[in-house]
Design a protein that fits this description.
Elements: H1 14-22, H2 27-43, E1 48-53, E2 58-63, E3 71-78, E4 81-86, E5 107-110, H3 120-132, E6 145-150
Parallel strand pairs: 1-6
Antiparallel strand pairs: 1-2, 2-3, 3-4, 4-5
């Protein structure tokens, strides 16, 4: 008797999945995430984007390898807004004291818009974060996007009315 192969469900592209994740947010937050992603992709063209649609946050990490611990910086979005999170932010030079948080490792700043990424103080932090990464970004090539995890249960992505 011949074996019949099961038809595989076609996997959605990462771009399509990201659009679906962002559709859960208020349009202003979704737009902010999209524009910050475009700006960070220009700053780190060889980075690997790791995407997490977790319980608390939707996150896009810009990493030097496919290991989460090799993340340089992430966009983190919730119903309250968007932040730029530095994986090793506690070790970054921050002479202007713009980083928030008090954990042993991570620091962040609120991202009012993608224009924040062009602020010289923020640009200096982004450069320092890339420079301090244990594994350096490739000098040539192009990064790719990975959907790392999606939580079945999530906090609301839109502000309560």
């Amino acid at each position: 008797m011949a074996k019949v192969a099961k038809a595989e469900t076609p996997q959605k592209s990462p771009a399509k999945q990201i659009e679906e994740f962002l559709s859960k947010f208020d349009p202003a937050v979704a737009k902010q995430v999209k524009s910050a992603r475009v700006a960070l992709r220009k700053i780190f063209p060889t980075a690997i984007e790791q995407v997490y649609d977790n319980y608390n946050f939707f996150v896009i990490g810009f990493c030097t390898t496919e290991r989460t611990s090799d993340c340089i910086v992430s966009i983190a979005a919730s119903a309250k807004g968007v932040a730029l999170s530095f994986y090793r932010g506690a070790a970054l030079p921050d002479p202007h004291k713009i980083l928030l948080g008090s954990g042993k490792q991570n620091r962040f700043l609120r991202l009012e818009s993608a224009k924040t990424l062009s602020d010289p103080k923020v640009k200096a932090l982004l450069k320092a974060a890339a420079d301090q990464a244990p594994n350096k970004l490739p000098k040539t090539g192009k990064g790719h996007t990975m959907i790392k995890s999606v939580s079945a249960k999530q906090r609301p992505r839109k502000k309560a009315a």
